[in-house]
Amino acid sequence: MLSKAWDGSVNYCQMMDEQGNIDPLIFPKDLDDKKIIEMYRWMTLTRAADAKALSLQRQGRLQTYGPSMGQEATQIGTAMAMRKDDIFVPNFRQHGVFIARGLPLDVFYLYWKGYEEGCIIPKEVGGMPYIVPVATQIPHAMGIAFAQKYLKKDAAVVGFVGDGGTSEGDFYEGINFAGVWKLPLVIIIENNQWAISVPRARQTAAKTLAQKAVAAGLPGVQVDGNDVVAVYKAVTDAINNAKGGATVIECVTYRMSMHTTADDPTKYRSDADVAMWQKKDPVARVKTYLTKKGVWDDKKEQQLANDNKEEVDAAVDKAEKFKPDPKSMFTNIYSFMPDVLKAEMDAAVEADFWQEE
Ligand SMILES: Cc1ncc(C[n+]2csc(CCOP(=O)(O)OP(=O)(O)O)c2C)c(N)n1
Ligand SMILES: [Mg+2]
């Protein structure tokens, strides 16, 4: 006897196309112009803060940095769908999520300047600090989701992972546990087509990354990750369903810049590929939509650009004036500090590296 043991499919959703056209029948009812303009503000601020970080790194004023350019719709769409008490667990590239959730912009620069103080995320932001080991954040997100359920809190946890990260054991272990225990977890796969120099096609033979959810007994959906509305809708639905269990959302986007400032993407990808994705730019798309609707014009655009620049410059200024406590890199590691570390800490305090010359 032959019968079907399982049958399934993965849906793809786009709500605002590359020319800024929408389908009013499926457009989320709660998204009025005001909210879309707010999304646009966060997206442009993220892009401005990102460009500044890259420029600072090139001047030796910031450490190695991983740009988010091109991924603003995925990040802002997710952040805007999250409720106040929901918690996000990032990897190293979710600058837009931090910014839209209210991380003071100078703290963003502190992190990328290499200061421990940049890892202190204010409680109201509701997020964990950046983490660099690929996919280790997914078991963390799963554990935090387990805690929300155990403590009977009405909060969902949103964990981010890259396309490359979905090949790691940590990814499967996290979503598998979430499936068994029906945890309030939303996994956002930021499929930006590259894991450093490894293209999506070399990452897995699976047709979508969303279908990896199926093995964990979870729903998996794929959305246009350069469409802020589609991302917003998918994450809103997943959060609304989070009490019943987890969802995996693959956001199909593109890393328009380098992996990090230690990388040169011209060595492994074509200009044509980048140009093709430039046409799908997530920020330009929202601007086109708002302009066509008559609620946005050049004057407003100029004002917004000025406001963003002012905010970014003030944050950089504050971060550059920051005097760290030399003890901060030694504390919070051991409950009892070993003597050898104590000696190093005392020497650092004595040397007073941060003293004005
Ligand atoms: C466990 C682990 N292996 C390797 C690395 C080196 N590394 C840093 S980022 C990266 C690629 C990640 O690709 P992806 O998950 O697609 O995220 P993206 O950088 O594209 O946002 C690798 C291999 C690491 N940080 N941690
Ligand atoms: Mg990637």
Structure description:
The protein has helices spanning 33-58, 72-81, 95-100, 105-112, 137-150, 169-180, 200-203, 228-240, 271-278, 282-292, 298-321, 339-351, and strands spanning 12-13, 87-89, 157-162, 185-191, 194-195, 198-199, 220-224, 247-252. The protein has 357 residues and is α/β, with parallel strands linked by helices. The chain folds into two domains: 12-322, Thiamin diphosphate (ThDP)-binding fold, Pyr/PP domains (Rossmann fold), CATH 3.40.50.970; 326-357, no CATH class. The radius of gyration is 21 Å and the shape is globular. The model has no long low-confidence stretch (mean pLDDT 96). Bound molecules: thiamine diphosphate (TPP) and magnesium ion (MG). Magnesium ion is lined by residues 162-164, 192, 194-195.
The biggest sheet amounts to: 6 strands, parallel
CA-CA gap between termini: 83 Å
**Rg calculated over all Cα atoms:** 21 Å
Which shape, going by the Cα principal axes?
Answer: globular
CATH fold description of the largest domain: Rossmann fold
The secondary-structure element order is EHHEHHHEHEEEHEHEHHHH
Overview features:
single chain; 357 residues; alpha/beta; Rossmann fold; 2 domains; six-stranded parallel sheet; two-stranded antiparallel sheet; 12 helices; binds thiamine diphosphate; binds magnesium ion
SSE diagram, text form:
Layout: E1 12-13, H1 33-58, H2 72-81, E2 87-89, H3 95-100, H4 105-112, H5 137-150, E3 157-162, H6 169-180, E4 185-191, E5 194-195, E6 198-199, H7 200-203, E7 220-224, H8 228-240, E8 247-252, H9 271-278, H10 282-292, H11 298-321, H12 339-351
Parallel strand pairs: 1-7, 2-3, 3-4, 4-8, 7-8
Antiparallel strand pairs: 5-6
